[in-house]
Every structure is written in structure tokens, then in C-alpha cells.
């Protein structure tokens, strides 16, 4: 059976980081829930802190270095993504946004994505909804309904009668991603090239207008 390709994007800056910890927990839960259905998953983690210089050079030169090119190809070929960013000034980090700026805008079309974030205080939790989710909406990804925000005080909590604790939210979001992946066939080699070819086959707007006039 072909394994699903799950790529985990972590934009944490420290090592170790709570961002990477959250990313790993979400990936583990997704793999575990797919395993119950007899499905296998190949997980690849992309640490953006290791690509920061390559990303900056790409903006200047227009060409990715080998490590960045490999990360971009992994995201393009992935069946699903887990994208986790620290929250700075009520939004995603600049490194997180810059990475997705150097990826072809069509590479994430229709791709299932679980979004998550970390921060020092719960006051920033809505950043996932007003900043991160619209980013992937613009990229035409299929974002799971549950986003996961982990403030410092969330680690080790179990929640209360009205609110799930962090483990419950992680499992619910991972279950939604697992459900989307289970409903799709694993992408074969060259899947990203096929998606681009389909995009290039779209009829130009001017041609569509000309056809209407005729």
C-alpha cells in the first residue's frame, strides 16, 4: 500500500521550541489515527529556522538553494501539510510567511492543511483565524475546521466542561486531517507536475471573453 506523504512545517526559532513540539504532537496524532484504518504515513519535517538564509537569498536571486528546493518539492508533492508558526505581534512569523511566498501559488491548491500556532498568551489565539487561515484560503488549500493554538499555560492542561484541553484539540484537528487524507488516494511521483499542468491548461480570461462576444 502506498504511504501518504505528510509534510510538517515548523517555524520555531529556538531549539528545542514549543512550535516544533506542537508540530510533532499533531503529526503523531495524525499518524496514529490513520494507522487505526490500516493506512501508513511517511512524515517529513521541515524546520524553517534552518532555511532562513536560503529563503532570504531566494528573494534576492530568484533561485532556491538545494536545501530550500528540496523543502519546496516536498511541500508540492505532499498529500497533506501540518503548518505551525509562533505568533509575533498578533500574526504569523515573517519566516513562516516568507517560506510560503517562495512556493508556487498553485502548489497548495486542494491540499489538506492543518494549521496551528504557539504563543506566550492566549490573547493571540485568534491570530490563527484572522491571519493564518486566510493565508491558506488564498492559496486555495483545504484547511481543517479545527485550528490548534497552544499558549504557554495550555501545556499539561486537560480543559474544563466547556473547553477541550490542548490534547483534546490536537486529537480533534489531527482526526480531521486524517479524515481528509483517508478520503484521497496517495499522490504518486510527479503529482505536483500534474497539478501544474492542469493549472496551465486553464483557458485565459481574454479568450473566454472573445468566445462570449462571438
TrEMBL record:
Gene Ontology molecular function, alphabetical: oxidoreductase activity
SUPFAM superfamilies: Flavoproteins (SSF52218)
Keywords assigned: Flavoprotein, FMN, Oxidoreductase
Top enzyme class: oxidoreductase
Superkingdom of the organism of origin: Bacteria
Coiled coil: none
Family annotation (InterPro entries): CE1759_FMN_reduct, Flavoprotein-like_sf, FMN_Rdtase-like_dom, NAD(P)H-dep_FMN_reductase
EC nos: 1.5.1.-
Domain NADPH-dependent FMN reductase-like, residue spans: 5-153
One Pfam family this sequence matches: FMN_red
PANTHER family, A to Z: FMN REDUCTASE (NADPH)
NCBIfam families the UniProt entry points to: LLM_duo_CE1759
Protein name per its UniProtKB record: FMN reductase
Organism: Kitasatospora misakiensis
Amino acid at each position: 500500500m502506498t504511504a501518504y506523504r505528510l509534510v510538517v512545517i515548523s517555524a520555531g526559532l529556538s531549539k528545542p521550541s514549543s512550535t516544533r513540539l506542537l508540530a510533532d504532537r499533531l503529526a503523531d496524532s495524525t499518524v496514529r489515527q490513520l494507522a487505526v484504518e490500516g493506512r501508513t504515513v511517511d512524515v517529513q519535517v521541515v524546520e524553517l529556522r534552518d532555511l532562513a538564509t536560503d529563503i532570504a537569498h531566494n528573494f534576492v536571486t530568484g533561485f532556491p538553494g538545494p536545501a530550500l528546493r528540496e523543502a519546496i518539492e516536498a511541500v508540492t508533492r505532499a498529500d497533506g501539510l501540518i503548518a505551525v508558526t509562533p505568533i509575533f505581534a498578533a500574526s504569523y512569523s515573517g519566516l513562516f510567511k516568507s517560506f510560503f511566498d517562495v512556493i508556487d501559488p498553485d502548489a497548495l491548491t486542494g491540499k489538506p492543511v492543518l494549521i496551528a500556532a504557539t504563543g506566550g498568551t492566549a490573547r493571540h489565539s485568534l491570530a490563527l483565524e484572522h491571519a493564518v487561515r486566510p493565508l491558506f484560503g488564498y492559496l486555495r488549500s483545504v484547511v481543517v475546521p479545527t485550528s490548534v493554538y497552544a499558549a504557554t499555560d495550555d501545556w499539561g492542561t486537560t480543559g474544563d466542561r466547556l473547553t477541550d484541553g490542548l490534547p483534546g484539540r490536537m486529537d480533534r484537528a489531527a482526526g480531521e486531517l486524517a479524515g481528509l487524507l483517508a478520503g484521497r488516494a496517495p499522490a504518486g511521483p510527479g503529482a505536483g507536475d500534474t497539478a501544474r499542468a492542469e493549472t496551465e491548461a486553464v483557458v485565459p480570461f481574454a479568450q473566454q471573453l472573445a468566445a462570449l462576444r462571438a
